[in-house]
Amino acid sequence: MADERKGHTNKKDHQLDQFRVDDKGKKLTTNQGLKVSEDEFSLKAGVRGPTLMEDFHFREKMTHFDHERIPERVVHARGFAAHGEFQLYESMRNVTKAKFLQDVTIKTPVFVRFSTVVGSRGSADTVRDVRGFATKFYTDEGNFDLVGNNIPVFFIQDGIKFPDMVHAIKPEPHNEIPQASSAHDTFWDFVANNQETAHMIMWLMSDRAIPRSFRMMEGFGVHTFRFVNEQGKAYFVKFHWKPTLGTHSLIWDEAHELAGRDPDFHRRDLWEAIENGYYPEFELGVQIINEEDEFAFDFDILDATKIWPEEDVPVRIIGKMTLNQNVDNVFAETEQVAFHPGHVVPGIDFTNDPLLQARLFSYTDTQLIRLGGPNFHEIPINRPVCPFRNNQRDGYHRQTINVGKVSYHKNSLAGNTPSEASVAEGGYQHYQEKVEGRKVQGRSKSFADHFSQATLFWNSISETEKMHIINAFRFELGKVKSKSVRQQVVDMFANVNLELAIAIAVDIGVVPPKSGGSNITKASPALSQQNTTFSAFSRSVAVIVTDGFHDADVKYVLSSLKASGLQPEIVSEKLGIITGMNGTQLEVDHANLTADSVLFDAVYMIRGSDRNKKFNKDIAYFIDEAFSHYKTIGATHEGIQWFEINDFDGKTGVVIANNMNTFAHEFIKEVAVHRHWNRQIV
Ligand code: HDE
């Protein structure tokens, strides 16, 4: 089915195809294959009588329904996923023996699940939160899972604190408020009393926590992993995903409004981009540190609350992942996929990062309860594309029928097979790191500096980004009822930057700190979203137009936008067809009632009909709002008069067609800017 279905296929797609079922045009049966003749009425003793137990079809249908739900993920419950492929640009053979990182001709199938962390499955996409970015590479040597986030550091240093951290950020247990939000007392109490959170909180309060799109987020493996090459030499490595569209964000007001107007904003964006052929692309980057340089930095490279500044350890771009196929069934694929940072292939290994070590336990454990037993690797989305075999047997929902009587090792009855593979044959061998020490429960002194990199982040970002952080703190702490917690947090962040702490304090009714500050002056320009890639490609444009438009000009602009990869969508008074002066007909995509500027990246205003006062009023709001969200707005024809009257003329990011020949080009250039921050919004 795969080949004709989507036109692109790979090993994983072929494998999944064996499990895809299409019931269209078929007869209804029970799960036992019996054809069903009645699916509307249960079996009763008389048409007005009681339902009979004998009705096996009713019982089967109802029982299955009663058991349709599985526990949602304890974190990252709300997610959305897509299939794709990864291809290498250059062989990494000198540093890793992982085959999929050696051969530039291999296209490795991938499955990527993006998620929010805190909210439940039914929460909104655009909340302020970390985003999960988990990738399963189906390699010929087994599955490799890169289970990362869109923020390069984490809240805590040792996994034993993870349950505490999650309890603190989740809705408070006595009333389950607030949903999908960190703006409440227990979370900030945790922050103030666990100061290793400082760096992560700076990122969480930044624009990174409200991405414009899953397609416009960076991804990070967060931990330090190891590469091991064929000679057995090891390197420390950090993984990065860089979106080819650049890293872009919503603004808070927009994120808030979207949570109501379209809680599915991010999943819809990903789904539609793939359906429309705007395949999301992410380049894979690696930062590599030689083993000999383990202690060459002023931070511990095993500490997951630290980045390796890109200016010190450059990110080498080694390949690209393209997401080109939506799932067929969200439950079967997105919900049942089981990621695990411990799923590695030869050439990729772990380090002693205490956060990573804890994760190696937690992920299998959580799948056992979530997916109901130890055979979750047999669920189609989780199956490797290479053969897998061992002596594990039985358990809930076992699918394979293992023939023969031998299910143990060592044996003579089956010639001691399945047999172990030597390293030369591709057998995994753990890196033989020398470890010695006393058994202790404690934190290494090298993990003690919680603030320097938080200040580094602050130093690295633009004034606009700084203002957003201040406002995010004000919002979040403004929701904290305990004055003591508010004060503790402000005092804590005085260690990052004194002006930051004072700016927060003045708005949230606590005493501004008098001392503190940091002597860190270093900056890492790569951390600022101002230094990302800017592109108009795939940006959505609301085209506001009613009957009587200027046919040739409008057709020209729309085709220019499409030719440059933008996505114009017609917004008008009502759904149906609108007709130009010379009879050109355009299909309306959105009636104004269901459209809103927050759903688009830019607005192109052609005609504000003066026949319908309500529409005019709504459109005025639409454009005002787009303007206040710093978006590009353009006008031709009657739209121009509108702009003049409403005083938009001459403002930055406002493109007025003085010349129809150059309008589209100028407009597209401004759309690529995404936000015109220097616009004065009062
Ligand atoms: Fe996770 N995390 N995590 N995490 N995590 C889970 O596994 C956990 C951490 C991440 O789309 C759970 O299958 C512990 C860091 C993603 O299915 C669970 C610790 C990073 C996803 C779990 C961490 C992540 C999860 C819940 C601290 C970024 C979603 C459901 C030691 C590098 C994967 C599940 C998906 C999911 C445990 C910290 C990323 C409970 C104990 C750091 C993207 O096993």
From TrEMBL:
Decomposes hydrogen peroxide into water and oxygen; serves to protect cells from the toxic effects of hydrogen peroxide. Its EC number is 1.11.1.6. One of its GO terms (cellular component) is cytosol. It comes from Gracilibacillus thailandensis. It catalyses: 2 H2O2 = O2 + 2 H2O. Heme binds at R73, R113, F162, R359, Y363, R370. Gene3D superfamilies: 1.20.1370.20, 3.40.50.880, Catalase core domain (2.40.180.10). The active site is at H76, N149. Residues 29-417 form the Catalase core domain. This is Catalase. GO terms for biological process: hydrogen peroxide catabolic process; response to oxidative stress. The keyword Transferase does not apply. Residues 1-24 are annotated as: Disordered. There is a cross-link at H340-Y363 (3'-histidyl-3-tyrosine (His-Tyr)). Pfam families: Catalase, Catalase-rel, Catalase_C. Its cofactor is heme. Keywords: Heme, Hydrogen peroxide, Iron, Metal-binding, Oxidoreductase, Peroxidase. PANTHER family: CATALASE, CATALASE-B. SMART domains: Catalase (SM01060). Belongs to the catalase family. HPII subfamily. GO terms for molecular function: catalase activity; heme binding; metal ion binding.
